[in-house]
Design a protein that fits this description.
About 25% of the residues lie in helices and about 20% in strands. The protein is an alpha+beta fold. It has one domain: Glutaredoxin, CATH 3.40.30.10. The strands form 2 sheets. It has a 4-stranded mixed β-sheet, with helices on one face. It has a two-stranded antiparallel ribbon with strand order 1-2. The longest helix is centred in the N-terminal third of the chain and has 12 residues, at about 40-50.
């Protein structure tokens, strides 16, 4: 089926998939509203706005598994993201990214090594995965790598 075609639920409750939001490249990020890394929403939105016209999208998966930093309802998450950070990129329903209830998207993503060689469970909010147009994971960036880091931007540009 491929990672981009795994059935998902949008934050508003409608059925969707990653494939509905991009045709060339997508940056998949597990997000949280009450995290020290939450300000990364600004750079994520800037990436989305800058490259969305070229077949790129950021997509966010709210997750409450790390310090319970995403406790809100879907409506609260949507309101926070739009009012605090002007988020326009697609957000999916809250999921688990680790453990026995891990979303199937993250079953696939966590098999990829990051730039330091780490594979396996998501370590914290705002871990990033870059997928190509076929849904292959081409890069993984740890949570502390900012979305506008030159390595992230170069990897995105290489796919467009």
């Amino acid at each position: 089926m491929g990672i981009k075609n795994i059935p998902l639920t949008a934050l508003d409750g409608s059925p969707t998939s990653i494939a509905e939001h991009t045709d060339k490249a997508v940056l998949v990020v597990n997000v949280a509203s009450q995290c020290g890394l939450t300000p990364q929403y600004t750079a994520l939105e800037e990436l989305h706005k800058t490259y969305s016209g070229q077949g790129f999208s950021v997509v966010g998966f709210p997750c409450n598994q790390f310090g319970e930093q995403e406790p809100g309802t879907a409506e609260e998450i949507a309101t926070f993201c739009s009012t605090a950070y002007g988020v326009t990129f697609p957000l999916f329903s809250k999921i688990e990214v680790n453990g026995e209830n891990r979303n199937p998207v993250y079953d696939e993503l966590t098999q990829t090594a990051d730039t330091e060689g780490y594979t396996g469970d998501i370590r914290w909010n705002f871990e990033k995965f870059l997928l190509d147009g076929e849904g292959n994971v081409v890069a993984r960036f740890n949570p502390r790598v900012e979305p506008d880091d030159p390595r992230v931007v170069a990897a995105i540009k290489a796919l467009l």
